[in-house]
Specification:
Layout lengths: L5 H8 L29 H31 L5 H28 L8 H7 L12 H29 L2 H23 L11 H8 L1
Helix pairs in contact: 2-3, 2-4, 2-5, 3-6, 5-6
């Protein structure tokens, strides 16, 4: 019997046709961690840390998007500086989001990613679609930072207690420190100081 040609064999297994519209069950369920990893961190520790990091991720992604909303919608005499500042903070939050997402994965967990899941998970109140004035924009951003900073302090402490030094370092060095700095840059914009003429000299003139 003649042997099947290798061309015919290839035809049955390999094709130039892209296999589109594929689907299959997930390979790992959300809320679980890989059973055994060479990280010398017990499964219950990694479960708790990944759950907490997903909360931090959801809040950071929401704050990131709040910065882009503010960057686009800002108005008024400080438009240019705030337009740039909001975008700088947005970019810094993008980096934070990636660090948190990848830490969840390396701990054996599953990172949140999609907007629907972020909206259901975040603790940051939903802003209106409407445009708001600068002091309101900044107040919203500061409130969001406060939620994240409070969580960072608790999470860093807990990571320390559980022996997860990597999560502690990420939360303190990257997330907390960046958020603290951004709070400073924002909150200075809410200090009511004269722009051109010192208030005392105006009072002297009036007296
Ligand atoms: Fe832009």
């Amino acid at each position: 019997m003649p042997k099947k040609s290798s061309f015919n064999e290839r035809q049955s297994n390999i094709s130039a046709q892209p296999r589109i519209h594929q689907s299959a069950p997930p390979i790992q369920a959300y809320g679980t961690v890989s059973h055994a990893l060479p990280l010398v961190l017990e499964e219950p520790v990694r479960l708790e840390m990944t759950e907490q990091l997903n909360l931090l991720l959801a809040d950071s992604m929401t704050l990131r998007d709040l910065y882009k909303k503010s960057h686009w919608q800002v108005a008024g005499p400080t438009f240019y500086q705030l337009h740039l500042l909001f975008d700088k903070h947005f970019s810094e939050q993008v980096e934070i989001v990636d660090l948190i997402g990848e830490r969840i994965q390396l701990l054996g967990g599953v990172s949140l990613a999609m907007a629907h899941d972020i909206a259901e998970t975040t603790r940051i109140p939903r802003p209106p679609r409407d445009r708001e004035e600068v002091p309101v924009q900044i107040s919203r951003l500061l409130d969001a930072h406060q939620i994240i900073i409070g969580h960072c302090r608790e999470l860093a402490e807990r990571a320390n207690v559980l022996g997860d030094a990597g999560t502690n370092d990420l939360v303190v060095s990257d997330v907390l420190r960046t958020n603290e700095l951004q709070v400073w840059f924002l909150s200075e914009h809410l200090v009511k100081v004269p722009l051109a003429v010192a208030e005392d000299s105006e009072m002297r003139k009036a007296g």
